[in-house]
Amino acid sequence: MVTLKGEHIFLRALEPEDFDFIYEIENNQDIWEISNTITPYSRFLIKQYLENAHKDIFEVKQLRLVISTLKNKAIGLIDIFDFDFHNKRAGIGILIKDPNNRHKGYGAEALQLLINYCFAHLNLHQLYCNISEDNVPSIKLFKRYNFKEVGLKKDWNIVNGSYKNEYLFQLIND
């Protein structure tokens, strides 16, 4: 049985009540680099997004889950994107919103739950992630869960007028 509940957090579907939480994340310029965002999102677009969040991963090729404390306080997001059922692979990304909640194991627990879900429930063969070369905490997190560095994309993203390299990490389910 696949569970999306861990010792300290659980992963849950997006709810209309998450509007302000999502709006703040999507419009926080400090984290736009992670999501390759270059423009703000309107309240209207976030509302539409939440109204369509119920759609099936097989239809929309992505799934966003809220990382929540056991007291049901939203602290982050974890995403499956580029879901490719034919080739049995998907990209994943994770964000803990408040820096004060980082480095407490929430992201690690969420990542482990998502890996288990992807391999056991979605029957995926591989997962991948893209991480900026200077995002050392994320590199350490994904390596901890046996993601292997398989490539370096040179000058991949422009951040504040400068090019940055990005690593490609991959986890294959044996």
TrEMBL record:
InterPro entries: Acyl_CoA_acyltransferase, GNAT_dom. One of its GO terms (molecular function) is acyltransferase activity, transferring groups other than amino-acyl groups. Residues 9-170 form the N-acetyltransferase domain. SUPFAM superfamilies: Acyl-CoA N-acyltransferases (Nat). It comes from the Bacteria. Keywords: Transferase. Pfam families: Acetyltransf_3 (PF13302). The keyword Magnesium does not apply. Gene3D superfamilies: 3.40.630.30. This is GNAT family N-acetyltransferase. It comes from Pontimicrobium aquaticum. The lineage of its organism: Bacteria, Pseudomonadati, Bacteroidota, Flavobacteriia, Flavobacteriales.
